From TrEMBL, chains A, B:
Belongs to the class-I aminoacyl-tRNA synthetase family. One of its GO terms (cellular component) is cytoplasm. It comes from the Eukaryota. Pfam families: tRNA-synt_1b (PF00579). This is Tryptophan--tRNA ligase, cytoplasmic. Keywords: Aminoacyl-tRNA synthetase, ATP-binding, Cytoplasm, Ligase, Nucleotide-binding, Protein biosynthesis. It is an enzyme of class 6 (ligase). Its EC number is 6.1.1.2. Its main location: cytoplasm.
Amino acid sequence: MPETPNHQKSAAAAAAEEDDLVVNPWQVSAEGGKIDYDKLIDRFGCQRLEQSLVQRVERLTSLPAHVFLRRGVFFAHRDFNLILDAYERGEKFFLYTGRGPSSEALHLGHLVPFMFTKYLQDAFKVPLVIQLTDDEKCMWKNLTVEESKRLARENAKDIIACGFDITRTFIFSDFSYLGGAFYENVVRVEKCVTFNKAVGIFGFTGEDHIGKISFPPIQAVPSFSSSFPHLFSINDNLRCLIPCAIDQDPYFRMTRDVAPRLGYQKPALIESSFFPALQGETGKMSASDPNSAIYVTDSAKDISNKVKKYAFSGGQDSIDNHRKYGANLEVDIPVKYLGFFLEDDSELEHIRMEYGAGRMLTDEVKNCLIEVLTGLVERHRRARAQVTDEMVDAFMAVRPLPHMFD
Amino acid sequence: MPETPNHQKSAAAAAAEEDDLVVNPWQVSAEGGKIDYDKLIDRFGCQRLEQSLVQRVERLTSLPAHVFLRRGVFFAHRDFNLILDAYERGEKFFLYTGRGPSSEALHLGHLVPFMFTKYLQDAFKVPLVIQLTDDEKCMWKNLTVEESKRLARENAKDIIACGFDITRTFIFSDFSYLGGAFYENVVRVEKCVTFNKAVGIFGFTGEDHIGKISFPPIQAVPSFSSSFPHLFSINDNLRCLIPCAIDQDPYFRMTRDVAPRLGYQKPALIESSFFPALQGETGKMSASDPNSAIYVTDSAKDISNKVKKYAFSGGQDSIDNHRKYGANLEVDIPVKYLGFFLEDDSELEHIRMEYGAGRMLTDEVKNCLIEVLTGLVERHRRARAQVTDEMVDAFMAVRPLPHMFD
């Protein structure tokens, strides 16, 4: 079955034609700024993550589902049900996620997939590979090789600070790990993808350099367990589950198309929406505007200032009107952020009710958010301060993980 | 200075337009079958290897020039004079050559660059890196990864049998060596070459798979000494001299265009014409026709049969006519082969004189060639039988070569 069943033409071509919704690894934009995620599911040909699947996860893991799961932050999937079927049969699988290390400091949106991946690792007790695509960022962001490698290590510290279990986690950067069985799989994938096909998926042009065209197979192959001979036996051919933001879907659509031709399992995906900018839901945050996001390096004062000054409010323009009409929760960023990071369901529901009815004011909601974010960022800062260079080396060491399924 | 000074448009485009002379790494063809090497020098923008340069080599090395040099088998170059200038100043350089391991047995044409490279290594006492592009052959010939790797090791044995000095020679296959500093240079090169540029140089189409498009930088980067941190210091930035057949020129035209942008030395080239097929000079030999070439695995009887039966003769159709008009040396394959492998200049000149004047018959010349080739192939067979798997491992070990310039 092709990976884009609802469209004869490629996603990129269709997007270019309709010209309103563009979501790919390098561009996220929509008419009016708001992403229509239903349309995206339809266009990409992935599946909606229904509540019944969330309940099944809870049954299978005997744990409450992660906030990001029960509140629909991760809202789409490909074959996640097959992963659960396999898990239920006692079959093994592994997790794969990654990051393009293009900046020194991570913002909260960057943490979302890692917080969720840590939950999955703990809940299913499975090994995890984390790819740092320093080669990609060197090529796309025009960083030097040295700077990309430095950023990869810096970002690894933030990732490790999310609490991953070193006995189940292998972090690698492409510059440090590419070669051997991994490169053999890259070549196998390359043989299956024509330039025209890559153009259809990624929208490349003739003026793109050949590094960009060469990259997709490098993001594809960590989906295949044989790319990690120090972790998995060549005959394992394990299933892989990839938690990621939905803009990464094109890479794995390509991967899933190719996998059966190589005798490999198609990777399964569990895909998130985008973490909104402080200024409102217009796709992803902009790295060029530090006031569009809360960074893990922001001080308590920074956080307070940014939330008070920039967080787009759905509250009314006067207290009288607010008391009368209530806040518009659909556009209110403080409520959306609380939806990500305020874990207590009843407290969140209380805020939504009171604020939506106008009994709670914007300032009160913003203060609540400031408290939540300050706590989160402070905990992250403390955890990151504990991460030494030796720990980075240890997570990135090419080594077996003998207890990764225990 | 661009690398193709005599043409505004790309070599591939020009070739397609004129439609008579096509020489690139995958295709060698010409109208009427005979390559016009003067036209090729003009089109590629390389330089003719003049006799004065050959004499300079003899002066600098205090050795007679190799037969392939003094008889014009290596007939073109790029900046070979700059290598000699550097050598004269006492500066170091290194040699780089390679082979695409697409077949089990090598034929005599395959040996030509290695025999010549061995002479250069001995004459200049310099280190040598030999690239086995098993990844390329896996992609272009649709071999499996495993088969390509096996052929690389088999071919390495034939290469080692040519007599390379293990204290100065590093042999590597892309599947075994790619990664680290080598891959960093691949990414640096990729960033400098757009798809359109690659199309101009190599003639790719949209239906080519992206592995083909990704490959040229992998053949480019052994030109840079920093790709071999176990051999050279990162700051050495040594000059590189590449002996190869002229069909490889497009790779190194690209490399020379890119090198200055990366702060690297442009590699110099010394380029050979093609070893002719037994059936006559129509470009390169065909792997699909075993009777078009003498293989290093051929028995004395095979060699005798092939030369007698298939070697195109410039002799006349009757003994009377032959005595009257003499042989046409321009098309005679036995004389051409003797020009490669009969080392004694006076003996060769004698044959040319007598045969050209009709005093010597085709059979006599063919018998002479059979004797020369049988000796050559027998020596090669004996040498190859001595090459163990352990020796292949030793040549391919990633190791320093402390005495490589001694």
